[in-house]
Write a structure and sequence with these properties.
By secondary structure, the protein is mainly alpha-helical. The chain has 18 helices and no strands. Helix 2 (18-24) crosses helix 9, helix 9 (142-158) packs antiparallel against helix 14 and helix 12 (210-231) packs across helix 17. It is globular. It starts with 6 loop residues before the first helix and ends with a helix.
């Protein structure tokens, strides 16, 4: 397949979508899973933590493996492993077995996201890279909208275990798709050794870079503002909005539509706006949306479903800013793009895992708390970005 083929965006987006599907598809099934496995709501919630902790740890290695063995080979192996782990979840007899299956899913669920970014930078730079990154994010944005719809209907028709059977089949289909269509973008001469000393130096260089940490931190923090609602979806949709398990689309469809719109705008302005202008516009939208969310949560609305609007607007600003920030972080390490992408994902998913296990249960009881959490993360992200700007402006 030629590197310029439009199919590349679809392939990379589908591989990246494994992560959202593994998180969002089974959210509507939480109550039934608790009843069937004799587990508490908190124990079921911890299946998210089990997935995300191993996800965060393993994304540190996906990029290094792809730098050593090539992008295509690692993607195929990781996706096949994900399919097998999904079957373990489908047949888990107890909550402990489900924790184990989710942890195994997390070990391979981040490969598509990490390696996909490296593939984009292998092929393109500057505005072309931003356009392809934005296109992948726009297509990828469909996944969180489709996943809970699939999950809700599979739950009603076939029970919660069928959701994990679907994930196994999804992974298997992606193995075939990757094998048949994805080109290898890393030449053998450009591959990096897996020697422990070389790896230690590489990780030390990336994670020891304050500029990288600030840019990657800005991405992670702004995404956390949105991710609060993803992890709180059962409480937000069914308790605060008063909807059913099949109605998760009220949260996900507007939010993902906003993400797709922001990604499309990012691709449209690439080459016309500077990165600073694009990122600044994204922050203006995010902060305005988050402030509106707090205000709307403090008053009595005629219909609580209006609370979804600020989340959708926030996702527009986030998707507008993220491609430029991600490319800027990767460009700091042109020889180790896979490793840099791994470290970026590690910081983002590590932050996600922390809020999944600790912060979300403290906030999901109130729409005001959730809105304040979104505003707080947007402000922290802006602080990280402004710190990076101040650092680069120094003589």
């Amino acid at each position: 397949m030629p590197a310029s083929s439009p199919r590349l965006a679809w392939v990379l987006a589908a591989l990246s979508a494994i992560g959202p599907f593994a998180i969002d598809t089974y959210l509507p099934a939480f109550p039934e899973m608790a009843r069937d496995l004799g587990a508490s709501a908190v124990e079921v919630q911890q299946t998210l933590t089990a997935y995300m902790v191993t996800f965060a740890l393993m994304v540190l290695w996906h990029g290094a493996l792809a730098d050593r063995f090539g992008r295509r080979r690692v993607l195929i192996a990781a996706t096949a492993f994900f399919s097998g782990a999904s079957l373990l979840c489908a047949f888990a007899p107890t909550i402990e077995w489900l924790w184990a299956g989710r942890a195994l899913q997390g070990l391979c669920g981040g490969a598509g996201m990490v390696i996909g970014r490296a593939v984009i930078r292998d092929l393109h730079e500057g505005p072309q890279a931003q356009r392809l990154m934005s296109r992948v994010m726009m297509i990828f944005g469909i996944a969180p909208a489709v996943a809970p719809l699939f999950g809700g209907y599979l739950l009603v028709l076939l029970g919660w275990r069928s959701i994990f059977v679907f994930l196994a089949l999804f992974g298997l289909a992606l193995v075939v798709l990757t094998w048949r269509t994805l080109p290898e973008t890393l030449a053998p001469a450009d591959r990096q050794p897996m020697h422990p000393v070389a790896l230690a130096r590489g990780y030390g260089s990336v994670l020891g870079s304050r500029a990288f940490l600030l840019l990657a931190g800005a991405v992670a923090l702004m995404f956390n503002g949105f991710f609060l609602y993803i992890l709180s979806a059962p409480a937000f949709v069914m308790t605060h909005l008063g909807l059913r398990a099949q109605d998760f689309s009220w949260l996900f469809v507007p939010s993902v539509a906003g993400m797709m719109l922001g990604s499309a705008l990012s691709g449209r302005v690439a080459g016309h706006w500077s990165a600073a202008r694009t990122i600044g516009a994204g922050f203006v939208v995010m902060l305005g949306a988050a402030a509106a969310g707090v205000a709307m949560s403090l008053v009595t609305l005629p219909d609580p479903r209006w609370l979804v609007l600020p989340i959708a607007c926030y996702s527009i600003g986030m998707a507008l800013a993220m491609p430029s920030l991600s490319i800027m972080a990767l460009d700091l390490f042109p020889v180790r793009r896979g490793m840099a992408s791994s470290c970026q994902s590690f910081l983002q998913v590590g932050a996600n895992a922390a809020i999944a296990g600790a912060l979300v249960p403290l906030l999901w009881s109130s729409t005001v708390y959730l809105a304040l959490g979104m505003l707080g993360f947007a402000l922290l992200s802006l602080l990280a970005y402004r710190s990076w700007l101040a650092r680069t402006a120094r003589p």
